[in-house]
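subagent[fold] <- orchestrator: predict structure for attached chain, return tokens only, no commentary.
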Amino acid sequence: MKLFKKLFKIIIAILLLLIAGVWIFTRTLHPTYNGELELAAISDKVTVHYDAVGVPHINAKNQQDAYVALGYVHAQDRLWQMELIRRIAAGRLAEVFGDDLVRTDKFFSGLGIEEAAVKTIHGLDRKSEAYKLTEAYLKGINQFIEEGTTPLEFYLVGLEKEKYTIKDVYNVFGYMAFSFAVAHKTDPLLTEVKEKLGDAYFNELNGANFKNLTLIKNEKNPEIKAGFAQAMNTLLDKLPISPFIGSNSWVLGPEKTKNGKVIFANDPHIGFSQPSVWYQSHIKTPDYEIYGFNLALTPFPLLGHNRNYAYGLTMFENDDVDFYYEQNNPNNPSEYKTKTGYQKYKLIDKTIKIKGGVDTIYQIKVSKHGPVMNDLIDFIDDERPIAMQWIYTKLKNQLLEVSYQMSHAKSLSEFKTGASKLHAPGLNIMYGDAKNNIAWFASGKLYKYRDSLHTKLILNGASGDDEIKEWINFEENPQAINPSWNYVYSANNQPDSIAGMLYPGYYLSEDRAKRIVDLLAPKNDWTKEDVATMIYDVTSPTAPEIAMHLTRNVKRIQLTASEKKAFHLLKNWKGYYGKNEIGPVIYNRFIYEFQKNTFQDEMGKAYNQFANTPLIEKVLPVQAKRENSVWWDDVTTKNKVETKEMIITKSFQNAIVFLQNQLGENVEDWKWNRVASVEYEHPIGKAGGLLRKFFNVGPFKTNGGDQVINNQIYNIDSTGVYKITAGPSTRRIVDFSDVENSIAILPTGQSGNVFSDHYKDQAQKYVDGKFVKMKINQAEIEKSENVLIFYPKD
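subagent[fold] -> orchestrator:
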């Protein structure tokens, strides 16, 4: 008994020592928000005040010192995020996560992002301010790597820290540019529909792009002076960093606001993740000030404001990726056919390092159009070589100058000059200022092909006829400066004209755009509070219309009592995606069944890649109205031709049976919050179990649905559960009548360090539609409890 007690005491002592050791170790991993540190690359003292949500307010004597400090504080909160995002374009994720990421690495390393970065860096002006400040920012990051604490994630995956270079910055730009592109999800699908099913099927799908359009209007006025489908989706699903998707923004001119000053609003839609996509910071020097939102490893904010102007972005959704069928030389597969004869493919050897495995070595063929995708995606079901032409790697890259000039502009004219240098990705760049200018620029290098060419099909690489014929001057890009209707907006929808035509692209459905115009147009006394309410709006103007067209064709005589009740609720639903609403539950399941019963029989496996694309969202309202369609007949049923009424009635009944099994017999219990939720996943938290609880944030119930202003994006699939995977990556409102009280919110928090108080301190406010102040008043900032002072290192 005494021995047992002694052993028990020893075990308890060991456990206590272990707990104490773990506690002491984790305390060393906390970010440093208070105290004094030395920085090697600064010339004078830099003071950083951390406000109540962890935003660093950097006060320095010069910009060089400020950007060194920004690099340091950004790294101590987001080094793990920086590490992952720089590895994507370089094809280095398998070094961290093993075999599971080899295919993704192979794909991204073959796109040519790194090769384009090397070429761009070789031509950079090393005397430019953009270059010098970028190097200062990287010095701050690298000093943190040398002297700061190592994030927990590095220990868990056994990863050594490596210093960063300007090539890593360009790799981030490259990943950002690719994630904006949509062609890789649409062009192979439409090509397959046309080749396997024929023109009638293709024309009905493609024709939906030109129906139900809310067009962004062009108008330029003077400045106011003083005064791949399934294969591709499988690869991208494995990415630990989220892709860019859509966005909202609107800027109200003084005539539309109660206080007679510009109000700016923006909420870029990006895949949710933990940490949040954007890192906020406020820099102030004697000659410069910006409150910005930076991507990991980018020195200059893509979203920002100061007392003089505000800017932000949405995705343009223009077509800057084209696919070509190449034709190999039958006598020499290392050559491909061109209009002037056979040319040799450029051959590039690549190596992928794999954690716990043997390196993978492979070779890429590159035609004049770009890399051959068959070599990058193992499961392309097509023997023909398919090359990808991407404007990002084809043209001169000035993204560093673009972001520098937008964040350092002294006027609307200077800002426009910066925006005009963007070649890819295509962005709607939004602007408003204290002088009452408002503007929208659809930026990106646009071009023309020959007339009648279907650019959403895979093009003929051998003929020479499907090449770019003309580059469009930026002045012909869609844009509006101080328009007569007194506001500008974008919801990734179609501009009214580009060089006299509807420019091809992958513009999103009109839902959000229509709602924005419906709300903005009639009202001329907007306040910041009104805009804050609007940016959290969850009403769809188009879903009730679609439901109306569908319910008209339900054969009601066949319905049971429960089905009739559900039918009545859906018919009277106003498109509101509130937590306790029943309508969105019935609607989402109904359209899932409707789309599956309409398209899957003809498309087969290809339907899975069609089911959650922007294209199907544009096809849905058009198909719901069609009385006659080649898609109505179910080709799997013999000696029977289905009608619209039959397909829709079957779909509605299937939906109700499913919901009864999922949520119970009582229709009144079918609340939206029972099926829709959001969880912000950390790459390590995806493993589940205790790691999920430790690293992930959520889950939360939230208002919102797909393609409402508070856009909560999810897949509509067989599960009937809507796991929200993307949405507003931040909500920002800048009111120039009270610029010091402008507001914003992040989905989780400022820090990516799980031990920081700011890891998830904004999460509940975000799902509730609340905001925190973006402080720029120096006296208020200096009241902050946490102050970190950097001194020059001797």
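orchestrator: received. Logging for downstream: Residues 225-229 have pLDDT under 50 and may be disordered. The chain is about 35% helix and 20% strand.
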